[in-house]
Write a structure and sequence with these properties.
Distance between the termini: 26 Å
Oligomer: single chain
Number of domains: 1
Strand content: 35-45%
Shape: globular
Number of helices: 1
Length: about 80
Amino acid sequence: MAKSFWLINSNRSEVKRFIKNDKSIDGVFEYMFIDTGKIVGGLENKQPVMTSTVSVEIDLAREIYERLLSKGWRKIEKNWNLKKS
């Protein structure tokens, strides 16, 4: 599976996941999926509830990613499926 990149908004209520569509056809525009999710409980032990997915060209996905960062969204690592020791 393709590497995903996660952002979280400043009040920690919403996340966005950016992931490359690895089923893109050669010679055709590359696309990324942008998933949006709501945080229910805490991110430490429950994954977000994903509410929507859009598919956009990679250049547009980069623009959206950078725009969100400039508006206060922060990069995060997916950690809610990790087993606690």
